[in-house]
Request: fold
Amino acid sequence: MDFDIIIDNNFGGKKKMNSEKKTELVNIITKFADSGWDLIDAPAKAWLQKRFESDHAIVQNLVEATEKANLECGNCGCEYDPLYKIVLHSKDVLFAQKKELSIKNLLDTSKEQMPNEEYTINAQMLIRKPVSEVFRAFVEPEITTNFWFTKSTGKLEQGKTIIWHWEMYNASAEIKVKEIVENKLIKLDWGGPMPEVEFEFTVFGENATYVHIKNYGCKYSGKELIDTLTGQLGGFTTVLDGLKAYLEYNIKLNLIGDKFPDKIIK
Reply:
């Protein structure tokens, strides 16, 4: 499972990835280059030749070709089907700049060089349940309360504002539902230092769903920015872990309540 801080422009910038994930992408694109299918092999070969040069046009051609290949052949049952989806889920990595920014780089980067709104955290997880079931787990509070908040004033519906409660912490958040596309997307504004949240749901194989959570719009800088990014990332990591345990194994791990036991209201 891959959890990273991204420094990006419109979700297409720099992603700090582990070497194993980078190697996986290179191996997949190399396989595309050897496929003999004109649609995908030429863009793949061009990317392999120029991948250290951050050529946006070449990356864009590869992504577009992969999207077309996935539409034309993404469910035919061949060995390439899951590979198209992996590349598309990781396309922000392909747009990555050559130089990685460390936590120290982030602290040293001025607001003028890197506006705060360009920072995004991403959390991803494969859930081995149908997309309708996974999507419903976030929309219907009677399900969500088994792995995230403890109480809600209503289900998620586009245009509505609801309140989520974490009663053990005496905490709550006002949730504005900006957009809902059934079984595909949920966009929320939940206030606070990083108000924008997106949940993307992608069918993965016959009976699995790939959940990708994005959180962005941070209003801080310097150490406050780093603390916020890491805190939000840890929070959504915990949510996805709890979701997986509950939907796949019907286990309530109580991860949210156990995360900060010293802060629980007695």
